[in-house]
What we know:
With 495 residues, the chain is mostly helical. Helices cover 73% and strands 0% of the residues.
Amino acid sequence: MVRNLIKLEILKRVRSTSFARSAAIGVFVFFIGIFLLGYLFLFGLVLNSLVKNILEKDDAIHFINSCLLYFFLLELIYRYFIQQLPVISLGSFLHLPLAKSHIIHFLLGSSFISPLNIISLLVFGPFALMEIKPLFGVGPASIWLTAVVLTSWSIHWFILWFKQRFEDSLIGTLAVFTTLLISLGANYLGLYDLGAFFEPVFTFALESPVPVFLLLTLVILSYFLCFAFYRQNAYLEELSEREHLQFANKNLGFLSKFGLAGEMANLEWKLIIRHKKSRTYLMLCLIFLLYGLIFYNNPAYQSATGFSYSFIFVGTFITGIFMLQYGQLFLSWNSPVFDFYVHQKNGLKALVRGKYLLFTGISLMSFVLSIPYVYFGWDVLLIHLATFLFNIGVTMHLVIYLALWKPKPMDLNKGSMFNYEGMGLSQFLMFIPLVAAPYAVFLPFAFWFGDYAGLLAMSIVGLFGILIFRKVSTSVAEKVLENKYEISSAFRQEL
């Protein structure tokens, strides 16, 4: 049966109309993956020297054991966003006369074939060979490495259960980030060190194989937890009904005050929280709110007079990352139902203005949430205010104008990682003028009149763009109307 299921998967991919493009993208992603895995292996080779020479730790093994927990928390993060759920083809098999348990075992087994499952081996394998083996021998080094790998594999099965259980809400993402931030924050403030608490587990693996048996039991239990949940919920009618109920009341009621454009913005919001790819872009706003911590407190970016000009770049991204990422696929998000808007009275105009409204609202939210950066100085707050106004008055219009150049269709049900549907040459080149535009206004005034004059110039230009907002948004809507048949024809192409 397994052979037949594999054959069906191969035939589905080969017979797809987009097989050639998917194969080309697959080859490209394969080489990128090999490249990244190679870097991880090189990192593993120098890990021992890094700990002893750079971090100046005398006992590298004890230090690594105390840091393993944070590595696994980091693994929890990247697996949550990168690891794909093995349920994409579930609906293709449930109606067949096959045992449901066999189908679930096949899907879960196929999900395990992933480069993510060898990252821990590449990073810590050289360390076990170069540092642990000379001191403790081959046996303890093998047991220690096995314990690390088994922990990573248990996370694999846990994430499959966790994502399927919480993916249709923001609870899962917030829980993952909260766990990591609390752990790192508590360690930084000296409240407690979770890594030191779990360090004896891996140290004990150097003395006894007991941790390996315990972790192997954990891997088996996590697998069957995942299996039981998938088997219990593997009903098409249950899945569709649950999705409908979960998103039935996800409204932003205050948007109705803005008329038809507000209703379209409300629909766009439902689209964002309903699909994993668009939700990822929304989560990037929260991630990039922490972007300033890399720059604002870093001595390398401090200036004796005024502030570092790189802060303009940081402020632009913190207050405008959503419109930059989500807006670059301005109409592609609506490609499956674009014909619906075409045939509605004022449908396209309302869609465009609704997107403007949503971009403005989320950018305003990002600016408000970034106000605590005033802790690093009033300069930072002024930079965020100037970049926010510039983003709303100028950058947003640039994003939308550039996104209207030959938009491409996309499938909203696919993940965001290594998925380039909807992306064209304009989307890749878009960031050049968007990053350069704030500096084009800021630098001349900063050079002649000072840094704060540059911020004032950015704010004035942004306010002017806000004043002519209606005229510019109408121009964009008219451009969409002018090219609606060409855009609609492009969106009807099969993915």
